[in-house]
Amino acid sequence: MVAVVGASGGCGASTLTAAVCRAASSSGWSVVAVDAQPGAAGLDVVLSLDHVPGVRWPDLARLRGAVDGPDLIARLPGGDGVAVLSHGRDGQPPPGPEALSAVLAGLVTGAAPGVGLGDALSHPDLVVVDASRESTVGAARDWWGCVDLAVVVAGTGLVELAALSAVAAALDLMGVPVVLVLRGDRVPARLCDDVEDSLGVPVLVTVGSDPSVARDLVRGRAPGGGSGAVARAAGAILAAVGIGPTSGRGEALGPAPGRSSRRAS
Question: Are 18 and 210 in contact (CB under 8 A)?
């Protein structure tokens, strides 16, 4: 399980979540994306699956107890190897944090494969969570024990870096492996080094402007195709968790978590 967390609003965490899903599915991995950002546009929109019928968070408002992961996946909107559990846009209040914990536990510990989107998707290779900043500092955080890697996305301004410090500290207290993605054009190497020294967390990759994201969304495709900055960042994240194509270092690809050299996209 990979959790992508925006340290502050508007840093592109949902876009990066969708790009990771697209990159993994393009490499033959089955993926479930979980929207943990109530009140946003909805991860199904970013994945261009908002037109596909299926279960969304409002349908789980009365969820209690354990979740049968394969059965849930069979009911989710999906396509091209990705299923998504998304928040709706009807103003209904989302289920509480207990429901999120139950769903994620069911997805990562699901029983035998079921039916629906196919056996591969009913027992996925990868779960990607578009996590909210509040979930890292709130009261109900037990689901973070299922996370193999947390990817914290942040801008490079003073306020954004202060927010990054708070999120990174909360994840460190929970013992979650963390890497950073810094957003900005031509982020100085010295700044990356300073952030790593200050937080003790590696900067996996920096991500500059990527015009392909807007083009993909307009064309009804999930972002992250081709060779743009966001696609390369998604590849770096998959390499860090040991799945997907493991190409050479390249401009944007970083190593697995740990002190390392990494440089900008």
Answer: no
Determine the Cα–Cα distance for residues 251 and 249; give it in Å rounded to an integer.
Answer: 7
Q: Write the CB contacts of 121 (distance below 8 Å, at least 6 apart in sequence).
A: 30, 31, 32, 73, 78, 81, 83
CA nearest to 226, candidates 208, 238, 206, 211? 211
pLDDT digits (tens, 9 = 90+) for 20-72: 999 999 988 999 999 998 888 899 999 999 999 999 999 998 888 889 999 99
Question: Contact 128/34 with Cβ under 8 angstroms?
Answer: yes
Torsion angle of C-alpha atoms 49, 50, 56, 57, degrees rounded to 10: 110
Domains identified in the chain and CATH numbers: 2-240 (3.40.50.300)
Phi-psi region for residue 210, left (φ > 0), alpha (ψ -120 to 50) or beta?
Answer: beta
DSSP secondary structure code for residue 59 in this structure: G
Query: How far apart are the C-alpha atoms of 181 and 136, rounded to whole Å?
Result: 17
pLDDT greater than 80 at residue 251: no
pTM of the model: 0.86
Q: Take residue 125 and report the two structure tokens written for it.
A: 């290779």
CA–CA distance, 150 with 231 (Å, rounded to integer): 18
H or E element at residue 121? helix 119-122
CA–CA distance, 210 with 152 (Å, rounded to integer): 19
